[in-house]
Amino acid sequence: MKDNPNEIQFLNTAKVIGIFLVIYAHLSIPQTPYIFINSFHMPLFFCISGYFVSTSKYTFKDFFIRKFRTLIVPYFIFAIVSLFFELLIGQKYGNNANTHPDISKYIAGIFLAIPSRAYLGFNIPLWFLPALFSIEIIFYLYRKYFHRYSWITVICSFLIGILLKHTLPFRLPWGIDVALFAMPFVQIGYYLKRKNLNDAFFIRMNFTAKSSIILTSAILTLLFSTVNIRHNSGVLVYALQFNNYFLFFAAACTGIIFTFMLSSCIPASGLVRFYGRNTIILLGLHFMAYSVVKGLLHFIFQIPMEIINGNAYLKLFISVGDFIVLTPVIYCVNKYTPQLLGRKKAV
Questions:
Q1: Does 347 reside within a domain?
Q2: Is the Cα torsion angle 191, 197, 201, 203 positive or negative in sign?
Q3: Chain CA centroid to CA 258, Å
Q4: Is residue 178 part of a domain?
Q5: What is the rounded distance in angstroms from the CA atom of residue 6 to the CA atom of residue 12?
Q6: Averaged over 179-208, what is the pLDDT?
């Protein structure tokens, strides 16, 4: 099935909204928006990845190599850069100043990609890249060999994830345990593409209907995520913290609908396409960009760090500032070293 350019733009916009929410949520924001965002922002990316998985276009070998180039190679580059940044700057200034982490665990964490402060404390969000690699490889195999039972397979995967979560005393490397929980959302994205449902439900629908669905889905996501709180904490996918599984799935689905509907209302633009194609750089480097933006606010504009770290509205500005600070990095990588992202250099 040939991709509809409108759908690609619409999904690019969803990726930009999603990565902005990720960046904002990582700034220790107030509990209500934090719980709301965490309830669906990872399932959103799982769903989008499912849209682009193709079992017919590539052999398994080609698919594996392609995903390794586009996810694992950038992961190692970002991890090495982040580790040096942490050792040279992060532990001398800011929140991690005067901390003494186990560097040997950091190095082991790069290869194990276990999402915890002990192993990836220098840049925890990087866990997502090897996890997404595992997710797409597993889903490819599911579709290749169990395509007649795809929905049964992904539901069984979710159930196996629950079983392992409650029996294994340790985390699996490369996000394999997260991958088991991600399968239903990847399947939903794949199904949307295969049945061309994006076009029918999210693109051609009139604005009035979209507005109603945006409001309803936002309210439902807030309701589900607020109810799904245990010990004053909501969903944390990277930590396999889902609380009530039904409420987790419900909030994730309504949050995805909310984002997709909102994305379909935003006009196409080159800027959105630019950021949408480069969310991997925004994910990999936004922790370092925080330091740059906060440094500018503190040293240039003389804003006290107490205000920078405590004002939720200022954190929205910092999130936008991350995009601005990383724009020249994105431009240079795409122009001079696109191979770092698994892309071919333009000739």
A1: no
A2: positive
A3: 16
A4: yes
A5: 10
A6: 82
Question: Is residue 330 over pLDDT 90?
Answer: yes
Distance, CA of 15 to CA of 45 (rounded, Å): 7
Q: Which two tokens stand for residue 153?
A: 């397979």
Can you spell out the DSSP letters for 162-231? HHHHHH-SSPPGGGHHHHHHHHHHHHHHHHHHHTTHHIIIIISS-HHHHHHHHHHHHHHHHHHHHHS-BT
Residue 341 CA to residue 74 CA, distance in Å, equals 6
| 259 close to 44: Cβ distance less than 8 angstroms | yes
For helices 60-67 and 128-145, what crossing angle results, to 10°?
A: 170
d(CA 21, CA 17): 6
Parent domain of 63? 5-341
Model confidence at 191, pLDDT cuts 50, 70, 90, reads confident
Residue 27 CB: number of other CB atoms within 10 A?
Answer: 19
Closest by CA position to 40, among listed 25, 60, 57, 59: 25
In the chain, how many H helices and how many E strands?
Answer: 17, 0
Q: What is the Cα–Cα distance from 282 to 325, expressed in whole angstroms? A: 10
- 118 vs 99: CA distance, rounded Å: 12
With respect to residue 346, please indicate whether it lies within any of the assigned structural domains. no
* Token digits of residue 5: 């350019």
How many beta carbons lie within 10 A of that of residue 174, not counting itself? 22
Q: How many domains does the chain have?
A: 1
Give residues with Cβ within 8 angstroms of 8, minimum separation 6: none
Q: Quick one: tokens of 56? A: 């017919």
What single DSSP character describes residue 44?
H
Query: In the numeric block, which tokens belong to residue 16?
Result: 């930009």
Q: For the ranges 11-15, 113-117, 134-138, which has the lowest average pLDDT?
A: 113-117
Mean pLDDT (whole number) for 62-77: 94
What backbone torsions phi and psi does residue 233 show, to the nearest 5 degrees?
-140, 145
Q: Is residue 86 part of a domain?
A: yes
Beta bridge partners of 241: 236
